[in-house]
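Q: Second attempt. The first request was missing the SMILES, so the protein and adenosine-5'-diphosphate are both included now.
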Amino acid sequence: MLVENILEITDLSKSYQSAGKTLTVLDNINFLIPTGSANAIVGPSGSGKTTLLGLCAGLDRSSSGSVVLNGINLNTLSEDKRAQVRNQFVGFIFQNFQLLPTLTALENVMVPLELRGERNIKARALDLLDKVGLATRSHHYPTQLSGGEQQRVSIARAFSNQPKILFADEPTGNLDAETGERVQKLLFDLNHDAGTTLILVTHDLELAGKTQRILKIKGGKLVSDEKTLA
Ligand SMILES: Nc1ncnc2c1ncn2[C@@H]1O[C@H](COP(=O)(O)OP(=O)(O)O)[C@@H](O)[C@H]1O
Ligand SMILES: [Mg+2]
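A: Got both inputs this time. The predicted holo structure:
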């Protein structure tokens, strides 16, 4: 199935209750993401970018409004069904990596493949680790790896289920310039070669400028939505 817009965000809001007060973190956001496009989300710290990414990817539920991912309305799904949708279509690179501490780098990358019941998972996971330059570290645990190396394991894991859409929260934020360049190339190669839709949260305006469109969030509101020259 090929949908024109892989992601449709309509009147999306998220608020938290704390100490009897309502904190509105996202306020009535609307946008459409064409299938196969590369997009950046920018905005100050605390503006709601990570929250927005989590809602778009079905990791969390909105307070109101809807998220339609690959033609599927996530609001009406149970937790389990949302997990299935994520496993089928979505890759996610977390700001804080979220690797499983008791598993090696290789095993972390194998998890999504195992969940999908695929074959040859060890060889495929090794190939992915090789792509991010970590073939020699496959048997190391997350605590034995630097921040940048953990970031790259998390990228290999996100690529492993060949997602239709990849969300990345500050994917180059913890990397030195050279590794950052390599990660950028991996992301854009995936976009060009496999047609994977990209949604990147970034502070790096140079990276944002390499996408086709920049969505700017401020104080939980979408304040601009512009095409770039890329
Ligand atoms: N679970 C939560 N409970 C209460 N407030 C939260 C929660 N998660 C995020 N927030 C608040 O939402 C706002 C936006 O956070 P976040 O989406 O992480 O911003 P960004 O990624 O743009 O830095 C912040 O003020 C943050 O403190
Ligand atoms: Mg964030």
